[in-house]
Amino acid sequence: MRLRPYKPCDGDAVASWLTDEKTFNMWCAGLYHYPMTGDQLDERLEAGRNNPCEFMMTALDDDGTPVGYFLLRNADWEAMSVHMGFIVIDAARRGKGYGKQMLTLAKKYCFEILGMKRITLGVFHINRRAMDCYEAAGFIPYGTEEKPFLYNGREWKVIQMECLAE
Questions:
Q1: Distance CA 102, CA 33 (A)
Q2: What is the C-alpha to C-alpha distance for residues 56 and 69, in angstroms, rounded to an integer?
Q3: pLDDT, tens digit, for every residue of 85-107?
Q4: Is residue 149 domain-resident?
Q5: CATH number at residue 101
């Protein structure tokens, strides 16, 4: 697996991994419109084109096929911290180690290339598989956001996690 900056040709693949409305909302907390389309990601790319604190990334398998996606945002160059979000793996490849592998590469990119000392991310408390993956990749919980996300009348708590450079 390898990482590269997101390209518009990745959008339809990423959108296809968000197979139902619940999964979609666990991924984006309603910040995009369901059903997801590649055009929405391309709009985000265009909007952030000149933002030095935001990086859209695609993970590729050995054949160059997109298998994962995430966004690095809110890069704080003084505090040397960045937030990772919108993390998703191809639905057909979940549970096979791709997530941990992508997160390991993302950490390496953040720590070694960007020079960050801290990476944060948020995960809903109901998304135990994602939380387990993040913990396996070295992220640890450090808090809970005060305001939960409401989905179909239910409150989803956001667990904040972090990984520090060694």
A1: 25
A2: 8
A3: 999 999 999 999 999 999 999 99
A4: no
A5: 3.40.630.30
Taking the complete model, does pTM exceed 0.85, yes or no?
yes
Domains in the chain: how many in total?
1
Q: Long-range pairs for 74-78 at CB < 8 Å and ≥24 separation?
A: 75/114, 75/116, 77/53
Strands (E), 19-110: 55-60, 66-76, 81-89
CA torsion, points 91, 95, 99, 104, in degrees to nearest 10?
A: -160
pLDDT at 166 over 90: no
Rg from Cα positions in the chain = 15
63 inside domain = yes
Spatial separation of the C-alpha atoms in residues 72 and 53, rounded to whole Å: 8
Does residue 145 sit within a domain? no
pLDDT at 110: 98
Q: Is residue 24 part of a domain?
A: yes
**Segments forming the whole domain that contains residue 89:** 2-119
Cα 99 from Cα 154, distance rounded (Å): 27
